[in-house]
């Protein structure tokens, strides 16, 4: 009997390295595109793009894209669109600055007020889309006009920001509690090493679970290759952050911590929670989702509520960085967020998209902005180049699907 059991037992299969490389070529293409864009601009800027302080500035100046792209990703996956992001950022920032300047609000109370307004605006959009049936395009187009007008009423020409604590959100660094190790920030080095250990552990644990479950597992060579690439990237990024700043402060900017927390939370929501699966189901086939018992109206409402929250966070960071509120703040923010999603592989037709892809798309947009700015390229040409990149990304996605079909 034991011999029969032994004969029936079958070792778990492992895919070949060639299959893994070819099978993941499209998914990894966006990462290679980011690397290529960085290399090109590093050359064109004479090595200034990857200056440590320029890397920090890349995240500080483009934080609004990274944050708004998270919410826009979920909106697009569910086959909607939000055109009001920039106007809402201007309005929320105007109210926050007005409250601190004229109502003498504490900076923390101002943040709570701004988030509450963002949630209210998200609920407003969600109500019209989910329960009245007005298309998201029309609802948020109206919102774009409404809140740009209200921003003009509230902010007028300009409201300067006096709170040093509020301005520190976008400009300061995490306190250097471990001191300087030579010319490097000690805390950044420790966190970088922990990130490397975590990534390696996660990769090998994933393969172990695949073997244990009896499913086709990744080859060991592929796991090692991914781990080596991750170690090199994290190591170099840690070096850049650890050597940034000045003698008083440096290392990890506060805004990067905010982005990292949001990315982690929303990655978990989309990949590990029922709500995330419902978002993909609604975007993939709304009729099938309804038949399977998913409350699509609640999903749509929650998506726009969430968009309002993330837009308020983007408004807080934008107001902190600019140190003043104007009616023109946030112009074309929604375009940058939408472009980041499409460049990152989010399907125009909905149902497909990932948080890492959207973040890479946002970084490509950020590198374009940063690199062209360092080179002194006129703003009109910057918009032209970004527009061409967006069209190319969407065309590539559609042609790839057509070829696959």
TrEMBL record:
Family annotation (CDD domains): TM_PBP1_transp_AraH_like (cd06579)
Keywords: Cell inner membrane, Cell membrane, Membrane, Sugar transport, Transmembrane, Transmembrane helix, Transport
Pfam family, one: BPD_transp_2
Membrane protein topology class: Multi-pass membrane protein
Subcellular location field: Cell membrane
GO cellular component terms given for this protein: plasma membrane
Keyword Transport attached: yes
GO-annotated molecular function: transmembrane transporter activity
TM segment ranges: 27-44, 64-95, 107-131, 137-156, 177-202, 222-242, 254-270, 301-323, 335-368
InterPro entries to which the protein is assigned, alphabetical: ABC_transp_permease
Superkingdom of source: Bacteria
Chain's role: Part of the binding-protein-dependent transport system for D-xylose. Probably responsible for the translocation of the substrate across the membrane.
NCBIfam families recorded: GguB
Protein name, per record: Xylose transport system permease protein XylH
Annotated organism of origin: Galliscardovia ingluviei
């Amino acid at each position: 009997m034991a011999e029969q059991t032994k004969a029936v037992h079958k070792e778990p299969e492992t895919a070949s390295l060639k299959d893994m490389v070819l099978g993941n070529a499209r998914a990894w293409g966006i990462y290679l595109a980011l690397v290529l864009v960085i290399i090109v601009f590093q050359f064109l800027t004479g090595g200034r793009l990857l200056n440590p302080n320029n890397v920090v500035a890349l995240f500080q100046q483009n934080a609004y894209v990274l944050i708004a792209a998270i919410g826009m990703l979920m909106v697009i996956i569910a086959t909607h669109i939000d055109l009001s992001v920039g106007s809402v950022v201007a309005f929320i920032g105007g109210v926050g600055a007005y409250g601190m300047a004229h109502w003498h609000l504490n900076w923390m109370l101002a943040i709570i007020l701004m988030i509450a307004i963002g949630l209210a605006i998200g609920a407003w959009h969600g109500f019209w889309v989910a329960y009245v049936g007005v298309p998201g395009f029309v609802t948020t187009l109206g919102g774009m006009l409404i809140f740009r007008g209200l921003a003009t009423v509230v902010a007028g020409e300009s409201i300067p920001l006096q709170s040093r604590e509020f301005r520190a959100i976008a400009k300061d660094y995490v306190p250097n509690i471990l001191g300087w190790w030579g010319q490097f920030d000690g805390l950044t080095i420790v966190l970088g090493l922990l990130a490397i250990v975590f990534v390696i552990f996660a990769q090998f644990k994933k393969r172990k679970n695949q073997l244990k479950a009896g499913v086709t597992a990744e080859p060991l060579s592929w796991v090692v290759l991914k781990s080596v690439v991750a170690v090199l990237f994290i190591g170099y990024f840690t070096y850049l952050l650890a050597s940034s700043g000045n003698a008083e402060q440096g290392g990890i900017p506060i805004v990067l911590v905010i982005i990292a927390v949001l990315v982690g939370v929303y990655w978990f929501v989309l990949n590990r929670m029922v709500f995330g699966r419902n978002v993909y189901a609604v975007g993939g086939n709304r009729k099938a989702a309804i038949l399977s018992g998913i409350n699509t109206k609640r999903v749509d409402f929650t998506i726009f509520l969430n968009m309002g929250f993330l837009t308020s966070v983007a408004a807080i960071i934008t107001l902190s960085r600019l140190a003043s509120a104007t009616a023109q703040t946030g112009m074309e923010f929604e375009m940058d967020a939408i472009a980041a999603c499409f460049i990152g592989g989010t399907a125009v037709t909905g149902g497909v998209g990932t948080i890492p892809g959207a973040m890479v798309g946002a970084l490509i947009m950020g590198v374009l902005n940063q690199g062209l700015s360092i080179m002194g390229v006129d703003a009109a040409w910057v918009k032209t180049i970004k527009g061409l990149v967006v069209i190319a990304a969407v065309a590539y996605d559609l042609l790839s699907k057509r070829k696959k079909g």
